[in-house]
UniProtKB/TrEMBL annotation, chain A:
Membrane spanning residue stretches: 12-31, 68-90
Keyword Membrane in record: yes
Signal peptide: none
Keywords for this protein: Membrane, Transmembrane, Transmembrane helix
Record flagged with keyword Transmembrane helix: yes
Cross-referenced InterPro entries: PhaG_MnhG_YufB (IPR005133)
UniProt superkingdom: Bacteria
Organism: Streptomyces globisporus
Family of this protein: Belongs to the CPA3 antiporters (TC 2.A.63) subunit G family.
Name by which UniProt lists this protein: Monovalent cation/H(+) antiporter subunit G
Gene Ontology molecular function terms on file: sodium:proton antiporter activity
From TrEMBL, chain B:
InterPro entries registered for this protein in UniProt: Cation_antiport_E
Compartments where located: Cell membrane
Segments crossing the lipid bilayer: 27-43, 49-68
Record-level GO cellular component terms: plasma membrane
Family label: Belongs to the CPA3 antiporters (TC 2.A.63) subunit E family.
Organism of provenance: Streptomyces globisporus
UniProt keyword annotations, A-Z: Cell membrane, Membrane, Transmembrane, Transmembrane helix
Residue numbers spanned by region Disordered: 186-208
Membrane topology per record: Multi-pass membrane protein
Protein's name according to its UniProt entry: Na+/H+ antiporter subunit E
This protein's record includes keyword Transmembrane: yes
Main location: membrane
Classification of source organism: Bacteria, Bacillati, Actinomycetota, Actinomycetes, Kitasatosporales
Length: 117, 208
């Protein structure tokens, strides 16, 4: 029995480590990618995945019913709020001209913003 | 003379599973109250009668203090659809994290692009849910959502070849279908079951 507990504990620790490493990769991406929109990719996706992996690791070590539900709630709100924040950053960056249009391969939003209004 | 208490199964104007009361016709949405109570109990992280009761009192208080417009949001829960959406999102989140990581670490030269993808669903809630789900997949991050034409504008990180753009478009439509099948009303589901609009419409359609 204690062997199983040890295996679960180790798996939890490994998940924690992988999750933290994924978050770190997101930070490196923020430093290395060239512009706001590319950086927002790095800021949201590896970070959300890393957060969920850390939560899974914590869940494996806590192993209680209510704690699991609380962790699921945290993951749910993380997935719900992260995209909203990144959308607001991307939208305001685009509208205030922080985006270098010559760098983009093509841009279907620009036509709509200039013609449509 | 109006009734003091009205239930949604007698009055079709009300959202499903809700009732209104009093002379000021306050509406209480029962699923919303249940959800707020669940969050309250989880925040205290012990399931006791005292927590459930105070949770109910607090959520009724919140719903009365900050009343929502009395509309049917069009939220339906389909258990199997939610499972499929969660599985697809988790898999996609993993692949997108790997892709972004590769892009960062090895600094591959790439050209980004902004594409507009017209969606098939029309309700605000489904539009928002799809936008949130798309932000979590490798297709890209949402820059702008145009509500009148139900078009989302997506920043695609790795768009060197036309196939990549087509793949990103198809992925948005796939996520849309899964999202609506998880949360949508029957007629929204019927709408996403149709094939996506052709790409010509995606580029040249003027805003009304």
């Amino acid at each position: 029995m204690s062997l199983w507990l040890q295996i679960v504990d180790t798996a939890g620790a490994v998940l924690l480590l992988i999750g933290a490493a994924t978050c770190l990769l997101g930070v490196i991406g923020m430093l290395r990618l060239p512009d706001v929109l590319s950086r927002s990719h790095a800021a949201t996706k590896p970070q959300t995945l890393g957060m969920i992996l850390v939560l899974a690791g914590v869940a494996l070590r806590l192993r209680g019913g209510m704690e699991l539900a609380t962790l699921a709630l945290i993951a749910f709100f993380q997935m719900l709020t992260g995209p909203v924040a990144s959308h607001l950053v991307a939208r305001s960056a685009y509208r205030t001209g922080q985006v270098d249009h010559s760098e983009l391969l093509f841009d279907e939003l620009d036509e709509q913003l200039t013609d449509g209004k | 003379m109006k009734r003091v208490l009205g239930f949604s199964f007698r009055n079709a104007d009300l959202p499903p599973l809700s009732f209104e009361f009093g002379t000021r016709r306050r509406v209480l949405d029962l699923p919303l109250i249940a959800w707020l109570t669940v969050i309250w109990v989880l925040l205290w992280s012990t399931l006791t009668w005292a927590n459930v009761l105070t949770g109910l009192v607090v959520s009724v208080g919140v719903c009365l203090a900050f009343p929502l417009p009395r509309v049917d949001l069009g939220l339906r829960l389909h258990a199997w659809g939610i499972l499929r959406l969660a599985g697809y999102l988790f898999y996609d989140m993993y692949t997108s994290a790997v892709k972004v990581t590769r892009q960062t670490l090895f600094g591959l030269p790439h050209r980004a692009a902004v594409i507009g993808v017209p969606l098939r669903c029309r309700s605000d809630l489904m539009l928002a849910a799809t936008a949130v789900a798309v932000s979590n997949v490798p297709g890209g991050s949402i820059i702008e959502v145009r509500r009148a034409t139900a078009t989302v504008f997506v920043h695609v990180l790795d768009a060197d070849r036309p196939e990549e753009l087509e793949a990103a478009r198809r992925q948005v439509w796939r996520v849309e279908e899964l999202t609506v099948r998880a949360f949508g009303t029957p007629d929204e589901i019927a709408r996403v079951a149709e094939p996506p609009p052709p790409p010509q419409l995606a580029t040249g359609r003027p805003a009304p």
